[in-house]
Amino acid sequence: MTKINGIRKGCKDVFNAFLVAFADFAGFFEFPVIRPCYDIPNRLISFSKCISYKNHDFWVHFFEDDYLFERLWRNPRKNLPILQRFNGVILPDWSLYRDMPLVMQLWNIYRSRAIGAWLQVNGVKVIPNIRYGDRRTYKVCTDGIPKHSVIAVGTHGTLKNLDDHETFIKGLDVVIKRVLPISIVVYGACPDSIFQKYRDMGIRIYQFQSEFGKSRNSNEGVV
Question: pLDDT of 78-100, one tens digit each?
Answer without folding.
Answer: 999 999 999 999 999 999 998 99
